[in-house]
Amino acid sequence: MTEPETPSNPLGAGSPDAAARARRGRNIAIGIGLVGFVVLVYLVTVFRMGGNVINRPL
Amino acid sequence: MTPPAVARAALPPRWQDYVQLLKPRVMSLVVFTAATGMICAGTPLNPIMGAIAILCIAVGAGASASLNMWYDADIDARMRRTRGRPVPAGRVQAADALALGIVLSLFSVMLLGLAINWFAAGLLAFTIFFYAVVYTMWLKRWTAQNIVIGGLAGALPPVIGWAAATGQAPLDAWLLCAIIFMWTPPHFWALSLYTSEDYAAAGVPMLPVTAGAAATRRQIWIYSLLLIPVCLAPVVTGLGGMTYLAVAGLGGAVFLLLSWRVRSGRAGDAADPRVTDGLYDVQAAARDARNLFAYSILYLTLLFATLLGEHLWGRAAGGLS
């Protein structure tokens, strides 16, 4: 599949505010990604183990 | 591997730039075809695990797209369609695109293997390797058959979805793969007929550049003739029902009609160049190619949506009875 793309909008380029906003947005995205990955691993663990956690021999 | 020469980013990249590196529109098609494969497999998968499998496949596709954008930045910078991408536009450094591609490749394959099964994970790893290395680094700059062979990477997601659900890849799964594989050449060559100047400027040996527009129009027609029987094959194996037969048959007839118009027209001829800088602003003769390109997307979407609908309907009806 092809994907038409538009050139970047340079408005605000070079301004410290724009740089700070970009960095903040990226940090938030990384944070959400990390939390999402932790949740994924938790869900996989729960579903893969299933009832075996409860039914294991004691 | 030779890292491409690109401009340094003037600003810290925004998170949207990284999303763009993953080619979200392509990812959405991958999600759709992989989900179709998963549903058609007929083995109910826990919805959460199914969603995780689809996510892994989508992220794997995005990772290979990021690796593609890293390596192809020099080509992308010379084509109107791609020069706004994050790396050639200087919004993301090439090394960052490479790192993102590698990290997401590893995460998607490992998670799919640990969460679902290693057969599906192996297929995903092969798909990423095939797209990023075999297609991007080798075929694309070397042969006019680049998108024919490289089309396998785009055709594998339904097989991965099927393998995620069942741990196997039977004939029906490969039929879904074959449909996308045979669909890719007429789809891309129709596009390249009216963007061949860009490909020529970038040094990419697309068929219209190396063999000319007439040969490309002939190849589009031949591949269209081969595509329709492949699209009808699921009816023979029982994968598709009567609705699918109608959609594949009638839609296929329209596909052949549009393909014949391209075959008998003059789309892509040097005598019919584009006159504006607009991406899809083409002259009358090339309009046939644009119509086929646009319809090919609709046709593939309809085929997979019909299969998806038939199987979901069958599952719902089976659950009620």
Textual characterization of the structure:
The complex is a heterodimer of chains A (58) and B (321). Chain A has two helices and no strands. Chain A has helices at residues 16-49, 52-55. The longest helix of chain A has 34 residues, at 16-49. Chain A is rod-shaped. In chain A, 2% of the residues are buried. Chain B is an all-alpha fold. Chain B folds into two domains: 14-168, UbiA prenyltransferase (Tetracycline Repressor, domain 2); 170-321. Chain B has helices spanning 15-21, 24-40, 47-71, 73-76, 94-115, 118-142, 146-155, 157-166, 171-193, 196-202, 207-210, 213-237, 242-264, 284-320. In chain B, α6 runs antiparallel to α7 (146-155) and α6 packs antiparallel against α8. The A-B interface holds A 1-8, 13-14, 18-19, 22-23, 25-26, 28-29, 37, 40-41, 43-44, 47-48 and B 10-16, 18, 20, 23, 25-26, 29, 46, 48-49, 52, 55, 81-86, 89, 91, 107, 111, 114-115, 154, 187-188, 191, 279-280, 297.
Question: What CATH first level of the largest domain in chain B would be assigned?
Answer: Mainly Alpha
Task: Estimate what percentage of residues of chain B fall within beta strands.
Answer: under 5%
Low-confidence stretches of chain B: 1-9, 271-276
Distance between the termini of chain A: 55 Å
**Order of secondary-structure elements of chain A:** HH
CATH superfamily of the largest domain in chain B: UbiA prenyltransferase
Number of helices of chain A: 2
Count of all domains of chain B: 2
Shape of chain B: flat
Helix/sheet category of chain B: mainly alpha
Radius of gyration of chain B: 20 Å
What share of the residues of chain A does DSSP label as strand, in percent?
under 5%
